[in-house]
Amino acid sequence: MNRSSQVHFLRHLILQSTAQSDGNNFCQTQLDDEGSFPSIQTVPANGVWILKVEDTFGGDAGTVHAFSLITSFLQTNCLSPSTNNVHTLTASVNGVGTITPTGAVVVADGANMTFLIQAQAYYHIADIQTNGVSVGGSFQSNLSKLIYTLSNVTANLSLQALIEDNRTSNNVPEIWLVMHGLTNGNFNSTELLDSDNDGLLNWKEFVAGTDPTNAASVFKLTDTQENLVRWFSVSGETYFVNASTNLLGTFSSPLGSNILATPPQNTYTDSPVGSIKFYQVGVDP
Hints:
The chain has helices at residues 21-33, 61-77, 174-179, 187-190, 202-208; strands spanning 9-17, 39-45, 48-55, 79-80, 86-94, 97-100, 103-108, 113-119, 123-130, 133-134, 145-150, 157-165, 221-225, 228-232, 238-244, 253-260, 265-269, 278-283. It is 16% helix and 40% strand. The radius of gyration is 29 Å and the shape is elongated. A 5-stranded mixed β-sheet has the order 7-5-12-9-10, with no helix packed on it. Strands 2-3-1-4 form a 4-stranded antiparallel β-sheet, covered by helices on one side. The protein is built from 5 helices and 18 strands. A hairpin with a 2-residue loop joins strand 2 (39-45) and strand 3. The chain is α+β, with helices and mostly antiparallel strands. The protein has 3 domains: 1-84, 2-Layer Sandwich (Alpha-Beta Plaits); 86-166, Immunoglobulin-like, CATH 2.60.40; 174-283, Immunoglobulin-like (Sandwich). The two termini are 53 Å apart.
């Protein structure tokens, strides 16, 4: 193991022993036999055991996860949390990623607790909240990994990491391009291509809900008859219809909006008119 960039963490957890001395020593021996922790101490103080774990594995996922494992082992097999002078931190993730340790974590009053937050590929950490309130500060759009420490914990609280998808200049999720196999080159450049040569750029296909790799999947009018308009529609989208009597003018007469999709096509019927009318159909923003 490369120890040239070691980072030492000293974490404290107060637990109350529910086992006899021999039982605690047995658990201590089992943990020591794992050979993963250079320093493990259990110090009795007024009937409360203080577990001190110091590792030299660096500030990575293995370090934080290892501490979570040893804590879980003691709580399950040897000790139970004391109801005095300890607090419970409930850690979770909203989005595609992980936080370690996760779930309920017991810490001593006034102690610190460190968490490792990781977003999956093509996602980033957008915010961190305690009890539903942002901790503040700005997060880089490409921040995918963060070690976050709660300092001087004096009460029970929740910690939630908010993870969002990375977006291109035209607000297309990178993961959407990846799911369609459009991973060659820069995402901001890829969204400006017409990969299936159907007349719509990739980013416009995302807005329309169509497949950027299938020329048959395209947003366009399929039929117009007097006051009737039909177009290809996609499940989950809503549409608007505007009208104008001048094809070269503006379509300033809105006829309908929030029109639910009825795949594979939608039909809109306008009131009868005695003059020529032109129609415009679009996807609601």
